[in-house]
Design goal:
The protein has helices spanning 51-68, 87-97, 119-127, and strands spanning 8-10, 17-19, 34-35, 39-43, 72-76, 105-110, 144-149. With 150 residues, it is an alpha+beta fold. The protein has two domains: 1-36; 38-149, Ribosomal Protein S8, Chain: A, domain 1. A four-stranded mixed sheet has the order 4-5-7-6, sandwiched between helices. It has a three-stranded antiparallel sheet with strand order 2-1-3, covered by helices on one side. InterPro entries: Smr_dom, Smr_dom_sf. Pfam families: Smr. Residues 50-112 form the Smr domain. It comes from Polynucleobacter paneuropaeus.
Length: 150
């Protein structure tokens, strides 16, 4: 079975599938695409960015995901090389706790709080039942955060 590409959207001009950011590869439309899945999985660690680079890229993806109509976003920020929380993880979580991303982020969960059967996990499943198919990315994983977009 082919792996789901959770970052794909629908081009509103030509109807083709396209990436979230950039122009449509089929018709070169710059119009905001429409999400074709509820959840975007975003890996902040790709390319080993600095904290500033990672946060800037995250904020671009958050803005685009919100505009495209994604309902949730799984953010893979890693643990940090010390295992106790690297700079990217600490910064993104500090911003979430400080409500920096309101109104785009309605609620958030830290991966280590999402254990099967936990109150937080059950609350998340009630809010976004489709998130269950992505639980391998975040269940009990302190290197992730799950954002509910609003």
């Amino acid at each position: 079975m082919p792996k789901e590409k959770s970052h794909l959207c629908l081009c509103l001009d030509c109807g083709g599938q396209r990436q979230l950011l950039g122009n449509c590869r089929l018709c070169d439309s710059a119009q905001t695409p429409e999400a074709i899945t509820e959840t975007l999985i975003f890996n902040m660690e790709l390319g080993y960015p600095t904290i500033e680079e990672a946060i800037n890229k995250f904020e671009s993806y958050l803005d685009a995901a919100y505009d495209a109509g994604f309902k949730s976003m799984i953010v893979i920020h890693g643990y940090g090389s010390s295992g106790t929380g690297g700079g990217i993880k600490q910064t993104i979580r500090r911003h979430l706790e400080g409500n920096y991303y309101i109104p785009k982020v309605n609620h958030y969960y830290f991966g280590e709080d999402l254990k099967a059967g936990s109150e937080a996990y059950e609350e998340l499943r009630k809010a976004r039942s489709s998130i269950k198919k992505h639980q391998s990315h975040f269940l009990g994983n302190a290197g992730t955060s799950v954002l509910l977009l609003g």
